[in-house]
Amino acid sequence: MNTPRLLAVSGMSPQILTETLYALIKAPTPWIPDEVHLLTTVTGKNKAVLQLLTAQVNVALGADGAPCNNRLDGFTELRLLSLLQKGLCGPEALPAAQALEIATLGGAKALGLADQIGSLCVGKQADVVVVGQRSPGQLPVHDPVSLLVYATQGSDVRHVLVGGELLVRQGRLTERTGLDVDRLRAHCAEQMPALLRRAKLS
What we know:
By secondary structure, the chain is an alpha/beta fold. It folds into 2 domains: 1-120, Alpha-Beta Barrel (TIM Barrel); 126-202, Urease, subunit C, domain 1, CATH 2.30.40.10. It has 6 helices and 7 strands. Helix 3 packs across helix 4. It starts with 5 loop residues before the first strand and ends with a helix.
């Protein structure tokens, strides 16, 4: 059966999204759950995440742009995703392993690339993030998955490989990225006064 593919990004009311997806799934010509994806950013209203997971809808995790999310830190979003579900639905809701799967395989499925990325398997691309576990906020280490979800920040990332190529080494971008952080920092400082004037904040 030829089924449409939906990728719903944050911005729609979770309640409306949930009702819409349930209607699609239960329709006479139902949508295959694997073809329906939700890319969610963390808000206090996202109780719908558990309902969508129960309906076998793939959920992925992202961060809004800089104007409404200054950190753009995937680990911060991951932590909030799990903790907000617990606050809304109880302490057993969305355990660390399930939240981590949303942030990894969930994203790969939403992009239609689950056969290439999203997990460390033979035949997939070598996309690897190496995280340190020595910062005071991460101690003591009792479970590596819980460590990643609840106690890790972007600043704890030590190395990043994408397709087997080293793009971050010891927390610093490599030349392979083509990015000069010092130059970017100087450019941001140079542009900030004009941005503040346009926004009538100075």
